[in-house]
Structure formats: C-alpha cells, structure tokens
Amino acid sequence: SEPDAGSDVAALACEARLEGDHYVLNGAKTWISNGGIADFYCVFARTGEAPGARGISAFVVDADTPGFEISERIELIAPHPLATITFDNCRIPVSQRLGEAGQGFKLAMMTLDIFRASVAAAALGFARRALDEGLARAKSRRMFGQTLADLQLTQAALGDMATAIDASALLTYRAAWMRDVQKQRTTREAAMAKMTATESAQTVIDRALQMFGGAGVVSGMPVEKLYREIRALRIYEGATEVQKLIIARELLKA
C-alpha cells in the first residue's frame, strides 16, 4: 500500500530504477505491518517492464539500508504496529530482487492467497471467543425473573452466531487443506474464507457485545476489545469488496 495506492495496484508509484548492479528505490509505503520493528521488508516497486501491474518487481530491503526511513507511526483503534516508510535514493543490489523483474505482482497475489486464509483463521478465533463470552453472559445475567438465555431473542442470536462461526470455519479449513494437502491454487477459496470469516466475526462480536448492554462498551472488557480488533480485518489483505470481485473473476474464468 501507498498513500495513493491500495486495492488499485496499478496506481503504485514507488519506483526502483536499475543502475548497473543496483536498484535505486524512491517513494513511500504506508499501512506497513511491523513498520519500525522488522529488520527486513518486502518491497514492491515499479520497474517499468510493462504498464500497470505487469511492471512491478519485489525486493528484500534491510532496515539499515541508507535512504530507508520510518517517517510515521500510525495509531489504530486497536493496538497493531503500523508505519509509513519512505525510500530516498535507497540503493539495493540486484541480488535482493525476488524472482524475475516484472513478476512482483504475481508473487504478491500468490502470497495473499496464504495470508487471506490466515486472516480468516484469526477472525474465526475472535468470533469463537465472542460466542463464549456471549454464552457465559446469557447464562448468568438475570432479568425479568429469568436469565438472558431464557429469552427467545437471545436464543435466536446464539443460533445465528454459532452457525456463522461453523460456516466460516469450514471455508477456512477448505482453503488451508486445498493448499497444504492438495497443493492447489486457492485464490477463490481463500477470498471466500477471508470475506465470510471477517464479515461474520464482525456480526458475531457485535451481537455478543449487545448481550452485555452498557458493560459491553466499557474499555478493557473482552467484547469491547474484540469489537475494536475485528474491524481492521475486514480491510487488510484485501477489503471485503475486493474479495467479492476476486471471487466473481475466478468464476468467470471457468
């Protein structure tokens, strides 16, 4: 991601200019996980072999390389180390390019198939914790001479939550199994898992928080922390809207 390029990869502006046996990097990247903490960074930059996404190459850049700088720390609603980094005539040897020149976008997409399944798994974990919290609250909270769990509206919510979690789990496990066991390409399956698990987790956590009433929005409560944590997962590694486009494009290829 860059200040003016996220889902629109063709808008990527960071440049890697070849000079002899080195590339010279210039530009900026933002929303970089572990920015300022990592020792090495995988950087995608425009090398100009072709227009659009076909002219992008990938590089490994050491954090100590002259011209590399952490220009901003980004604070989020939930703790996560993010930063904006800049490259000012940052010289790196050709040997630090990953794969062939102009093949960076392909490498990125292959990697995202893995990361999207892992994001789905993270969302699944958040949702399961929220369901556990909601169940405990429903069973213990007394109101109107009975427990919250005795109310049919609560039972309906719990049924929806549990079903959404299992659906997310099955999609996530399928994407992981197809890649790890069957060694298949999982672009569509990973997108389905990521989209479903993150969107479902947002709904499950919201319903769990609702069961706590005012206590649910008290800072430090487990459901309050989950509520803040889940929101970013619907955006990074490709927003939900992007996942829908990926799924459709994969279907149309068949």
Total DSSP E strands: 9
Envelope shape: elongated
Tell me the fraction of residues in β-strands, as a range.
Answer: 15-25%
Regions with pLDDT < 50 over 5+ consecutive residues?
Answer: none
Number of helices: 5
Compact summary:
With 254 residues, the chain is an alpha+beta fold. Helix content is 46%, strand content 22%.
Provide structural commentary:
With 254 residues, this protein is of the alpha+beta class. The chain is built from five helices and nine strands; from the N terminus they run βββββββαββαααα. It has helices at residues 104-140, 152-180, 187-212, 222-233, 240-253, and strands spanning 15-19, 22-33, 40-46, 56-62, 68-74, 82-93, 97-98, 142-143, 146-147. The strands form three sheets. Strands 1-2-6-5 form a four-stranded antiparallel β-sheet, with no helix packed on it. Helix 2 (152-180) packs antiparallel against helix 3 and helix 3 (187-212) packs antiparallel against helix 4 (222-233). It is elongated. It starts with 14 loop residues before the first strand and ends with a helix.
